[in-house]
Amino acid sequence: MKICCKFFPFILFCILNCSIIDSAAQITDNRSLIQKAEKLAKDYPSLCTSRKIDVTPSGNDLIIITIGTDAKDDRPGIAICGGIDGTMPFTRHLALGFAENILRESSKDEIMDLLKKVTFYVFPDVNPDASAQYFSKLKYERTVNGNKTDSDRDFLTDEDPFEDLNGDGLITQIRITDPTGKFIESPDDSRVLIEADLSKGQTGKYMVYTEGTNNDDDELFNEDGPGGVDFNRNFTYNYEEYGKDAGLHAVSEPESKAVADFLYDHFNIFAVICFGPQHNLTPANSGGGERPAQGFARQSQQETSEAGRQIATGDRRITSVLRSDETVIRLVSEKFQEITGLKGSPPVKTTPGNFADWVYYHYGRYSFSTPGWWFPSERGKNTEVSFLKYADENKLSDVFVPWIEIKHPDFQGKKVEVGGIKPFAMTVPPSTVAEEFITKNYRFIIAVAGMHPELEFTDTRIETPGNDIFRVSLKVHNKGLFATCAEVGNNNIWTRIMRISLESSKGQVLLSGQKVQRIHRLEGNGTVEFSWLISGKGKINITAGALNTGTITTTLDLK
User: Fold this and answer.
1) Nearest to 376 by CA among 280, 276, 286, 285
2) Domain covering 28-134+232-375+429-449, topology
3) Spelled out in words, what is the top-level CATH class assigned to the domain 455-558?
4) Could you tell me if 366 and 271 are in contact, meaning their C-beta atoms sit under 8 angstroms apart?
5) pLDDT tens, 442-476?
């Protein structure tokens, strides 16, 4: 449908068409991001590799950066994912910035010691088709990939996209003055529109839509634009069949399949850090309000018992975090707040089929999710009002398109205005603090990695009652703060079972005890004891552990 409107004077157009947020952090496109990853692999060949694991529907490469010392896949691992939500391009730099920082500091003894114990798998951008919209001539916040879909199920694809009605290269909002509308100007900031509250005697003044036209005459605006499927709605936990942007089925997209396959193939991963819109790193006592509905609320004793009963009876559906896992999440939350200094909770959105929930409930690993940065907001205040107040206080320019009247083909005879907060303005931090938060989130991940499960042998004893018979006993101790695996993954086939094995010398006979035994899950600082009765002198080797805990070995000489 043609737009019959007269655009603004040239000077005003030039002002509005300047950089999206001239004071915002510099965001790197996917090609440059890949080049940076390749340079890291070239500069640190003994510690870093970078490789492509798949290609998106729009032809963007999906890459993985692996950081660690020799035998990287044989020691405990942490996965770090950025770009989960295309509307949050800065999260890509939090992930890539971690890789850059840890390699830059790898000459430090404490970092090299950590790299000898923990491997890091960094996905800088798991949703590059969506992130690419930040660099498009037409900028708008996008979450979906380039897979053509019939979003409104009218047997047409991509037929009702956004349109740039004022020619500024940005998609914002349109407001139509109409007595049947449900929106009014916020009393706290007239630039922001809020729903009228009848209980306060308010009546609506405006109808509000995203910037565009009703191309397919279905009374909806921009409901079927380019693409696609949302990476953060395409996973199996709580997947919404026929849901908006959810895909034909769970894990239907090359991006979600490639990431899931990689994680399932790497049994050594014990935790995943997700830089995205979900958030479970605000301690309950932080004053940040209610913990976001990502399922990470602490269970009551009754709920914990019920979860155990469900597992015992074959019903494995767990819908809230198990108690011992919540203890670890709370510990990590407090560390996050301590290091980043971020207060309260960010503006979060919980979607069915999201990645962070899948990591915990179906992949069975510790899942820590956060945007990594957010602007401060007051409890009970409108999010946009809080942002504009923050922008004004910090002298952030070019974050808002003033409301200016246009002619709109779908609202003949009505006053129609285009304006609103610019896309990405609320999710990309000011350039003055961007590097600071990349560094803070790096330090946070290093702190989390330092809590990794780590086994050691203690209290080793060799007793001999005579006749070349020896009783050998020792304890396996988890000296890490993390349990050897998340409780939710304890009965998950994708979690490796720890075991302890004894290898005897020729001529020795095992009189009691088993050569190979299972080691049950150990909480942080947990211990379990084993003993064997052996006939015959000679050396024995004892090995304990699993990929996600690391393996330890000791040699004892029976003489």
Assistant:
1) 286
2) Aminopeptidase (3.40.630)
3) mainly beta
4) yes
5) 999 999 999 999 999 999 999 998 889 999 999 99
